[in-house]
Specification:
The protein has 247 residues and is an alpha+beta fold. It contains 5 helices and 12 strands. A 5-stranded antiparallel beta sheet has the order 1-2-5-12-6. Strand 1 and strand 2 form a beta hairpin. The N and C termini lie far apart (35 Å).
Length: 247
């Protein structure tokens, strides 16, 4: 009996990210799920992709909690009272939102919930997409076969799709490859060649990082290590985002 109790306690503890837990947020009757990610050290980047994915460098991250899905149009509507998206549907990812628009959304979200949310850093995004400490080393977020986990050029029908329509990755997150690109907090810049801990990217730049590829892209752009960037005041119907919770 004592052994069973000890085992049960260990299971509860390991289901958390060292004190952080999965939770559901609700705003005006609309809910979204957040997934706790155990921190760790990983090798960020790739020597098989574009030059901007090099050099591979060591990144150490503390625990964080990130959205299970991309922010949907229903969530945006509940927070902002409007829907800027080109493709309409409550369960579709919101798009046509600039990095600057998202900062206003996050401010409103934080006011409504009394919590602190933000965009993920590029390092957090890649670590989560690759499955964190549960990573199986897949090329895409959850599989080596993109069609299993993502909507992209060959299967999207040239439009977005509901956010849980494909298989999740190792951490239970959806659409980190395909559907819509996702804004990150960081300015875009060259990778460092030395180990980093909880990096926030360059101090300035002309564009912010976007990750994950989208419905309009070929498989190459949907790899977990692929990098893009976009000016913060611009928006597109192929770019959306997900949020991180700060305890």
């Amino acid at each position: 009996m004592k052994k069973l109790i000890i085992i049960s306690v260990l299971i509860v503890i390991t289901s958390m990210a060292f004190g952080q837990i999965n939770f559901t947020e609700s705003i005006n009757g609309v809910s979204f799920e957040m997934i706790a990610v155990n921190g760790g050290t990983f090798q960020m980047g790739s020597d098989k992709g574009n030059d901007n994915e090099k050099p591979i460098h060591s990144i150490t991250l503390i625990d964080f909690t990130i959205g299970k899905t991309e922010v949907t149009q229903a969530i945006w509507q509940a927070v902002m009272g409007n829907n800027p998206s080109n493709f309409k549907g409550d369960d579709l990812p919101v798009e046509n939102v600039s990095w600057n628009d998202i900062q206003r959304f996050i401010t409103a979200l934080n006011q409504k919930t009394g919590k602190t949310y933000r965009l993920p850093t590029e390092a957090e995004w890649e670590y989560a997409a690759r499955g964190g400490i549960q990573s199986n080393g897949y090329e895409y977020a959850g599989s080596n076969t993109l069609a299993d986990v993502g909507w992209y050029y060959d299967n999207s029908g040239r439009q977005t799709h509901p956010v849980t329509g494909k298989q999740p990755n190792e951490l239970g997150m959806y659409d980190m490859s395909g559907n819509v690109w996702e804004w990150c907090a960081d300015w875009y810049g060259a990778y460092p060649d030395s180990p980093q801990t909880n990096p926030n990217g360059p101090s300035s730049g002309s564009g912010h990082v976007i990750r994950g590829g989208g419905w309009c892209n070929l498989p190459q752009c949907c790899r977990s290590t692929y990098r893009g960037n976009y000016r913060p005041g611009l928006y597109s119907y192929y770019i959306g985002f997900r949020v991180v919770f700060v305890p």
